Amino acid sequence: MNIVLLSGGSGKRLWPLSNEIRSKQFLKLLSDADGGYESMVQRVYRQIVQAGIDADIVVATSATQVESIRGQLPDDVDIVIEPERRNTFPAIVLAASYLLSVKRMEPEETVIVLPVDPYVDVAYFEAFKQMDARVQQGGADIVLMGIAPSYPSEKYGYIIPGADGTVKGFKEKPDEAAAKMLIEKGALWNAGVFAFRLKYLMDIAGKYLESMDFSDVVKHYPDLKKDSFDYEVVEKTEALAVVPYSGAWKDIGTWNTLTEEMKEQSIGDVIMGEECVNTHVVNELSIPVVVLGAQDLVVAAGQDGILVSDKHKSSYIKPYVENIDSRPMYEERRWGEYKVYDYSKYADGTKSLTKHVTVNAGCAQDYHVHRYKDEVITVANGRGELVIDGCLMKLSRGDTISIRRGQKHAIRAFEDLQLISVQISEDNTEGDTEILDWSWSALQG
Amino acid sequence: MNIVLLSGGSGKRLWPLSNEIRSKQFLKLLSDADGGYESMVQRVYRQIVQAGIDADIVVATSATQVESIRGQLPDDVDIVIEPERRNTFPAIVLAASYLLSVKRMEPEETVIVLPVDPYVDVAYFEAFKQMDARVQQGGADIVLMGIAPSYPSEKYGYIIPGADGTVKGFKEKPDEAAAKMLIEKGALWNAGVFAFRLKYLMDIAGKYLESMDFSDVVKHYPDLKKDSFDYEVVEKTEALAVVPYSGAWKDIGTWNTLTEEMKEQSIGDVIMGEECVNTHVVNELSIPVVVLGAQDLVVAAGQDGILVSDKHKSSYIKPYVENIDSRPMYEERRWGEYKVYDYSKYADGTKSLTKHVTVNAGCAQDYHVHRYKDEVITVANGRGELVIDGCLMKLSRGDTISIRRGQKHAIRAFEDLQLISVQISEDNTEGDTEILDWSWSALQG
Q: Which of A53, A255, A352, B141 could in theory staple to A298 by disulfide, Cβ–Cβ 3.0 to 4.6 A?
């Protein structure tokens, strides 16, 4: 079995913790099995393993999310980068072509596609085995997962079941009365989970592309119709089946719904007065948050900003934060993370950027060069080494390195390295990082 | 006329903006005449000038407040530093001895003493002229200011007036019924404002000290009784008079009372949803604060932390914040200011401290040395110079200086200097700054 996780766009609904780089699925706010915290994507991965599913996992996402995924999931999870955001049909075709031509999967194998951020029980993933069996047994080209409805929702799509687990039809967003009738007839919510044989999708994609070779699909990606998988594939498929799932299924994409799933009232350095009622506080900053006499509030403090909101009003955050124009102040990287302490623009247009950079023990940055910015790095703690224009030097506490624009460099850590970096540039700094073709393994060569 | 401003202790009632270094009277939260913001101490100074009072002004305070006062008040305001905190009687004697022996004031001159943070109208200071006249006309050794009560408060002291503006007696904290009766009889609140001839206080202080020379008073400060001026002087004086004042008089020492005087709903980078009711937000951080659907809330964000509180509950903040053990994250200095970005302690006991330091154009640090910490300074913007172990070097954007422990140094700015400083120490860093006897004027010599 192969699993394709669709890791969707960023969104600012969980501002200030989510930003263009860090989508909501990467926020570590859910309690994990060991008393710590895990993100939605880590929870899904853990539950797949827990359900005893033996599958190759591919995440289809955009380039901006690669570092976060690398930082949160094991290395054996593959990542397929969408050349551009086009909707779920092209993204799933891309992942399928990767499985076929790069991973050399058999065309008859089952692929199960799902969003990366459902908040569900392990049973949801256990149902994958039935979906796989149903695909392999034949007679259905697409097998859907159907969620047992908990109320007559007007915002979901309903799957109307036929005999023997087949699908008779669909009903999108019915009104409440219609939804009640559908539920009485055994209709299920469409969860956006699809199982099919690799081959089935490849045939459909053949309408748009000549070659299913991964590099060709990347090259001709714009030729794939910008449509949803539902619309382009599911609705045009006649032989459909559905496997029901009746456990928890939630979208925890707003502060209101997310805090319902938080086990504790607060995460981080938080002091709450006794009189606080139905209030949740998440603090990612290193300074304390004190909350007194709050009712139905969510307080979230992160490098990008601070939110104080009535819980219900928190769903309407979008217009208030979409015009906040700032660079992301926190980024998780494959090799560690960084926090921006200060980003200043001076009268003559020069900018300075002060960051706290952590390079995790055993990890290394790519060899890279900045064309427009000079950088001064001070080592606050840890041990590692720096390659600069091909020369190697050891780094330890108190060392300072001045890296001029045009100097190629990279750092790796033997022990966790805490670095303070000050970058100064006279021009646009965004995107001023060119990754070079050199590897640390060259040093051992 | 001489004015002595008593600049009292710190207190954490306006946490996170007030801390051990920055007392509430230094917070710039009140609207000034030019559409900007001023602190309580700046407001008092401005009102003294506005009232047309021609007086020498001395601030009696502790050493921790000197830099804040120097940063906020003009240089012609004198500062007298209490060798230790002992209560108002010793502090006022100290200031009086300074006026007498350092400023060479006549013993017959009037001194008016007041707290540095009353929130009042200009008329309050205009009343000083009557108080001065009353002192000089003779017949009263102490002239008090009496505030016209606005309600039968149980928490203030009442002055019971006699004939011709004399004082018949006092009543401390009466119950409400008694307060009502006192007010009917014309009693006034005791505002803690005292006027007297220098000589009068010097005679009383003579009980404790042999010499009224300022340096002697400093030396024998512990011999002065640790008592309030009210108890030690006012209550023992028979010839008392009172001058009434009937304008605004408020203690704005809690978030609840302070926000009542804020002209705007928010200060700093704040986005408020339309549905916010009776909510005030003060943001001193460089990241935005978004507040949605809040009611009766105060939100304050500063380098030391973040407060979200119901307005009424905000008066009970003390127990929640008194155990927050952190170094002050913001300090105003005579020459500029600094913000702490990060303060980390590592496994082996080493500490690193990352600060953003601003040295204002034309200002200079004292020549100083750290015995236990190394420092790396990067110039993010501006121009200035550095003296290090007697050598002079120019500073401009992008420069990095490594200052090892034991190296004497100081920086001065030609244009506002923005510096990122990383200090690393293996031992206790608090108090590790020794000011040296050297002056920038030596360079010109």
A: A255
